[in-house]
């Protein structure tokens, strides 16, 4: 299975910026409020430590990271709910401005060296943007939460495909929530094309990409269970359909961020779609051959190889090797069917226009994200 770890956005340069401290911005009369804000600072520090790790993808570590984020989010949402009350309108802007909320993009084209986007390059030279909106903080933490769920899915794929697919569905749910989350116009503080993570189109695309990856895991599980070639063909083509939808969102005319996205990320999306379309054609041919339609099976495989030849080769050697291996398998199957047809079946090879087209079955759905709210009242009366 093709794998790609989407880099994690960063929230500060440790030696350049002070830690964001909710409790020391202003002195409030109510001790309970100060206590809650100090606890919020501790929880955010734990999230910072998680995203600044030098290693990622280990299941136990990812689970710990998820727990930290899940503890921070309800407290952060509670702060937002309290700041948004009419009585706190004045303190709201002063409080947020004093916090100095800073984040960097990890999907931007300019975050990578010429050889490709890597986590190392992100750690070395991120560009930080300060935005005077608490929704900026919420958006970025939710974005990282979705990435961590996706990391969990990747870590589980070799040991528990059912749980892996579930984690992909949960990640898709968070990305979908982000794509619909109301937020202010960030362009006042940051050129939006420099921060793809903030756009609805990129969040929507990543949600669809997670559904595609979850469906790919489901297809592998179906193969493990010995399901029919016809079903496998539909499942793999469903993956390519999800990827096509993700691409459509990324490359839409209204989305000016596409040209600013990491080429490695776009390369991954393209390779994933092409690989599973090729797998779908292979299984479709196997299904046709099992029904005695060897001529049509040969035609389908020839069409698949012709399309694969036109596919832009991935610059990643691992992905290129996987695609070429799949193409080699398709070639072997086609050669076997051609020998069978020549010696026994003697069936006509239909023209491409006469061949059956792959049919997709998108069975993986997102798991909606639901935030658990604390509902604790904060009093921002200054001392």
TrEMBL record:
Positions of transmembrane segments: none
Highest taxon above the source species: Eukaryota
Pfam families linked to this entry: BRO1
Domain BRO1: 4-369
Signal peptide: none
CDD domains: BRO1_Alix_like_2 (cd09247)
Protein family: Belongs to the BROX family.
PANTHER family: BRO1 DOMAIN-CONTAINING PROTEIN BROX, ENDOSOMAL TARGETING BRO1-LIKE DOMAIN-CONTAINING PROTEIN
Name recorded for this polypeptide: BRO1 domain-containing protein
UniProt source species: Thlaspi arvense (Field penny-cress)
């Amino acid at each position: 299975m093709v794998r790609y770890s989407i880099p994690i956005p960063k929230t500060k340069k440790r030696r350049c910026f002070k830690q964001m401290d909710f409790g020391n911005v202003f002195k409030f009369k109510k001790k309970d409020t100060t206590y809650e804000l100090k606890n919020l600072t501790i929880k955010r520090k734990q999230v910072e430590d998680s995203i600044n790790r030098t290693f990622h993808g280990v299941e136990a570590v990812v689970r710990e990271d998820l727990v930290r984020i899940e503890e921070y989010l309800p407290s952060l949402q509670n702060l937002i709910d309290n700041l948004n009350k009419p009585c706190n309108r004045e303190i709201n802007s002063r409080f947020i401005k004093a916090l100095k909320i800073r984040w960097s993009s990890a999907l931007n084209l300019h975050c990578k060296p010429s050889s490709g986007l890597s986590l190392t390059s992100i750690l070395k030279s991120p560009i930080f943007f300060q935005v005077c909106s608490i929704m900026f903080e919420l958006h970025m933490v939710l974005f990282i939460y979705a990435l961590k769920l996706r990391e969990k899915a990747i870590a589980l794929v070799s040991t528990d495909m059912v749980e892996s697919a579930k984690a992909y569905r949960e990640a898709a749910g968070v990305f979908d929530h982000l794509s619909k989350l109301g937020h202010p116009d960030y362009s006042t503080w940051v050129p939006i094309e420099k921060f793809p993570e903030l756009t609805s189109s990129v969040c929507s695309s990543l949600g669809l990409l997670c559904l595609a990856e979850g469906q790919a895991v489901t297809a592998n599980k179906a193969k493990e269970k010995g399901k029919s070639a016809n079903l496998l063909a539909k499942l793999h083509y469903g993956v390519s359909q999800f990827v096509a939808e993700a691409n459509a969102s990324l490359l839409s005319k209204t989305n000016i961020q596409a040209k600013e996205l990491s080429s490695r990320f776009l390369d991954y999306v393209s390779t994933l779609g092409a690989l599973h379309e090729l797998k779908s054609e292979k299984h479709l041919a196997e299904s046709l051959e099992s029904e005695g339609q060897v001529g049509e099976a040969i035609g389908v495989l020839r069409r698949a190889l012709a399309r694969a030849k036109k596919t832009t080769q991935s610059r990643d050697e691992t992905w290129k090797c996987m695609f070429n291996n799949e193409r080699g398998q398709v070639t072997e199957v086609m050669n076997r069917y051609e020998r069978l047809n020549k010696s026994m079946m003697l069936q006509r090879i239909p023209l491409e226009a006469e061949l059956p087209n792959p049919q997709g079955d998108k069975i993986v759905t997102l798991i909606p994200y639901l935030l658990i709210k604390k509902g604790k009242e904060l009093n921002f009366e200054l001392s």
